[in-house]
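General statements about sequence and structure are easier to judge against a single worked case. In the encoding step, the backbone of a single protein was reduced to a row of integers, each denoting a local shape. The record that follows shows the chain in one-letter code together with its fold in token form.
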Amino acid sequence: MNIFTGILNVFKVIAGQIELVMGIVVLIGLILQKKKAVDVVMGVVKAIVGVMILKQGSTLLQSAYRPVMDMIKTAFNITGVVTENYAGMAAINQAIPTLISVVPIVMLFGFLLNILLARFGPLKVVFLTAHTMLAFATLTVWLVNWFFKVEGVPLIVASSLFCGIFWTVMPAWVYNYSKPFVGESFTLGHISGTAAVISSGIGRALGKYDNNNPKFYEETEEEAEQVSRAGSFSKIFNDSTVATFLLMTIVLGLGAFLSGKDLIQQAAGSTNWIVYALELGGSFTVGIVVLLTGVRIMIAELVPAFKGISEKVVPGAVPALDMPVFFPLAPISSVLGFLGAFIGEFLGFAVLLIIGSPILMIPGIIATFFDGGIAGVFGFKYGGKKSAIISGIVVGLVQILGGVIFTKLSGLATLGATYGNTDFGSTMAILAAIMNVLKNIWLFVALLIVIYGIACVLLKKNFETKEYNKVEQVKA
């Protein structure tokens, strides 16, 4: 009995530390690939250190934006919320430290379910964007616990199923629109799939797309050279550190200044209140950089393990990859889409101010840039440059106006940070509303299975033909 109790206590200690659980996940993946002992040791150590760095970044990030959110709440009785995935993930890590250790388990089981569904089901896609998987797994643990008040096995089962089905259905849905102009090489593996779907619809409508005679727009080399010569300012937006610093210095500094000198000085302590307000953006950026450094170190060990497993189990499946793989297909339009999303987000911000929303979504730069870029590429391919800009604006509006609904329903408003990608202002907002009504975790599990079944019926045709008809390319 003492031995059993001792083993149980050891398990509880390990399960309570996310870095140890992540190390075990990487250990299993590397052993399954029959890696050398030295490679296994190095991989496990890097994964553990990466998570520890991530946790430090989470703390730094929280300390940067929380004081401003508190100032806004005190001064205007408005809940300010930062729309940045890693800020949302950091807030969750701080809010439910006793539950967050199950995230690596959920991530692993969700990935294995994705592989099994790709191996034995009709939707042959494998989700390989590991940093997105980590962020989404963290969110699902929060959502399932928030709505259904469960822990332990029910939490792991429901969250893993949520992840596995989402990572299968959303890339398959985007594949319906990317396959015609990308082919079978890859599809989108991110929590911004609806940005691609919405933009494809806008492009088809504005470009008068004909299913019987499909034509896709192509950018000319001359245009790319002109943008390269004249658009040096756009380099700022290609560097997430610089862009984040500039935007968050303006946004957080403005929020602090509007709250008044007294509140700033109270938060600043002995530091000059003006200097403190101007340094907020820098502190936020430091938190993001540290957090992302930890994510990259950890993901560098996870991706080979996950990819190796998937290639052995599901050879020939379509890999679902990160957003930047689409940008070279229409680099000018990706910038136009970003500019459109930037405009759309601030229009949404203005709408919330005008209607007196108790929750104020504060636009972040990372989701705006990448989702806007995806909107630009898909909108342009189907409808030209005008569609790229309009698609970006619509995506920006969805991120803010749909995002505020998701943030309120999901309880993330109480944390002062939320997830910023387009899926959260659309599909996830709908799911959050349904979860709020269901109240029963097993009804939600049944719903997820139904969603997968419907997706199989509607999307399986895209995976039944291995060759796609040649289509005409139109110069923009």
Q: What stands out?
A: Strands lie at 79-83, 125-127, 187-188, 215-218, 318-321, 359-362, 417-418, 472-475. The mean pLDDT is 83. The first strand starts at residue 79 and ends at 83.
